[in-house]
Amino acid sequence: MIYENMDQLKSGCEFILANDGKDVRVLNESRFREKLIDDLIYTTVFSPDPETSQAARFLIRRGAASLGIISASIQSLYEAMGQKEISGFTVPAINIRGITYHVAQAVFRAAIKGNVGPVLFEIARSEIGYTNQRPLEYTCAVTAAAVKSGWRGPIFLQGDHFQINAKKFAADAKKETSAVKDLIREAIASGFYNIDIDTSTLVDLSQPTVKDQQRNNFTLAAQLTALIRDLEPEGITVSVGGEIGEVGGKNSTVNELQVFMDGYLEELKKRGEAFKGISKISVQTGTTHGGVPLADGSVAKVKIDFDVLEKLSENAREQYGLSGAVQHGASTLPNEAFDRFPATGTAEIHLATGFQNIIYDSKGFPAELRARIYDYLRAEMSNERKEKDTQEQFIYKTRKKGFGPFKMELWHLPMDVRDEICAELEKQFAFLFDKLKVNGTKAVLDQFIKPVDVPQKMPTALKG
């Protein structure tokens, strides 16, 4: 049910949630989880009344918090990894582009079955736009999924590729930087306590020295880190990531990592001794976001340079106390590649397009809806088609942009269809958790993560 006004919402919450004008208590957990949480998240996303939607968001987050489901920073765990107090696994960071509430449930179900601890739920700056998911909506969808699935403990929300667009920066550096700063403010206010700064787009390989090549990258990364430190809630250290090589570009080197880190730390020091730096570093080792589609629409096999990845991770830990290197663009890799990431000390791995592919290519996905989405892309995104692209390549590259325009229909797929798709996703999540060695790591969260429950202001419509 989608509540269209506050009277409907208050009636739906009666005897299930209670509030004292400041916070929320769950009176009936089973009814909260079985039905009300569905209504609240659908109201959050689709209610025509902004006041009712705002109230639903508050009730989801505070209701979840009363059950011990709290947004957290992964910083202290990554610090322990940097000090080699713990190792042996790679943290999965999962981008959910569509049907977020239901896909996140599949993640949590697999995590509960595998007794998994650290999993990051993330969304990139570009994805926020084309999937029509602002940070607060994403927070609510993941949080509601945790409630629905019976998850207990911290959840980790991450801003992925909060990226400076190089062309826009060249045209108006102040405007483009301000846009990323505004997004950082919005994300932190929405409970994103893990943020990946991506200024690697500003690396200029035409410059004569590595330091000159990386200068804009490390200078702006330090500036944005300082902003994050000013914005983070009391008691929380936001986990910040940096990036030295744009995904899809040339492979990173240890020298580039060192030059970036030395320059970054020097710039950060200028802004204040107390500013803590990044906890991880994203590198390029041979992958491309989404993979490289071939003429028939299949994806080319990619060869990752695991030796480089291992050296970069080790150097990041030994010299700078970071958790290690981060691998992007990995979800379309062959299955046999994934167990090599923990073996090489990779701290974190970003996974996105492979899950999108499971949704679109599922036997259960309605053929008629798929055809309408593809027709829309051919009509509305034709300017993105490159001259040499086949029809299959064009669709593969652009179908991620169908999630926003068809959001209502995707969220309202018949239950049996949705369940079939999510069962396929859950199977893949479980496979990845096993290969990345995060099964059995739930106790790690109890040891290293102490979530801070950040107060939230109750909407006026809920008071009284």
What does this structure look like?
This protein has helices spanning 6-13, 29-46, 50-66, 75-82, 100-113, 125-130, 135-149, 166-171, 173-189, 210-231, 254-270, 306-320, 340-343, 353-361, 367-380, 391-398, 407-411, 415-435, 442-448; strands at residues 17-19, 24-26, 69-71, 91-95, 120-124, 153-163, 194-198, 239-243, 280-283, 325-327, 348-351. With 464 residues, the chain is an alpha/beta fold. It has 2 domains: 6-67, no CATH class; 70-359 and 417-448, TIM Barrel. It has an 8-stranded parallel beta barrel with strand order 4-5-6-7-8-9-10-11, surrounded by 6 helices. A two-stranded antiparallel ribbon has the order 1-2. The radius of gyration is 22 Å and the shape is globular.
How does the major sheet shape up? 8 strands, parallel, barrel
Distance from first to last alpha carbon: 24 Å
By helix and strand content, what is the structural category?
alpha/beta
Helix content: 40-55%
- In CATH, the topology of the largest domain is named TIM Barrel
CATH architecture of the largest domain: Alpha-Beta Barrel
H and E order: HEEHHEHEHEHHEHHEHEHEHEHEHHHHHH
What is the spatial order of strands in the main beta sheet?
4-5-6-7-8-9-10-11
Number of strands: 11
Radius of gyration: 22 Å
Broad CATH class of the largest domain: Alpha Beta
Strand content: 5-15%
Overall spatial form = globular
Low-confidence stretches: none
Average the pLDDT over all residues and give the rounded result: 94
Put the structure in a nutshell:
This protein has helices at residues 6-13, 29-46, 50-66, 75-82, 100-113, 125-130, 135-149, 166-171, 173-189, 210-231, 254-270, 306-320, 340-343, 353-361, 367-380, 391-398, 407-411, 415-435, 442-448; strands spanning 17-19, 24-26, 69-71, 91-95, 120-124, 153-163, 194-198, 239-243, 280-283, 325-327, 348-351.
